[in-house]
Design a protein that fits this description.
single chain, two-stranded parallel ribbon, alpha/beta
Length: 159
């Protein structure tokens, strides 16, 4: 493989980036230079993406697609991805909330009770954390009005 740094691998057509915690945090902190979203990609997501073209496109177009599972991390390591680590979404969020890093957080989804618990715990562990959230109604499909309300909640909570 030579000295060429591998940026990512594809498993069943799904991108998994050659990155670990430190690289992810650095990418997030440099967000003004490279805007986008992060896909926390597990084996189940890979399987669904092989059957759902929109999901495949969403994962592959993400700023980062991180290996949330040892099988994906092992696969990457076998192909020469020395920086690839298994990074669970939960542990990444916990690390980001605990550090004094200036990153703003917005939680979208789940119940209002769960979001409030996460916010309360984050503020207890890190007094300087910038965090807010919104729980949209549970439904199979969102209307344009639902989406507008979600965007409004994100924008008005600008921390």
């Amino acid at each position: 493989m030579g000295s060429r740094k591998i940026s990512h691998v594809k498993y069943m057509g799904v991108k998994i980036d050659n990155i670990g915690y430190e690289g992810i945090i650095q990418t997030i902190q440099n967000g003004s230079k490279s805007k986008g979203y992060i896909s926390v990609t597990c084996v189940e997501s890979v399987i669904h993406a092989t059957r759902d073209k929109e999901l495949l496109i969403a994962i592959n177009n993400s700023l980062l697609s991180i290996a949330d599972g040892m099988p994906l991390a092992w696969y990457g390591k076998l192909l020469g991805c020395g920086s690839m680590q298994r990074v669970s979404g939960f542990s990444l969020l916990q690390k980001l909330l605990d550090e004094k890093n200036g990153i703003k957080h917005f939680l979208l989804g789940d119940t209002e009770q769960t979001i409030n618990k996460v916010i309360e715990r984050a503020r207890k562990n890190n007094k300087s954390v910038k965090i807010n959230g919104y729980s949209p109604p549970f439904k199979d499909e969102f209307t344009e009005d639902d989406n507008r309300l979600i965007f409004e909640n994100i924008h008005k909570s600008a921390i």
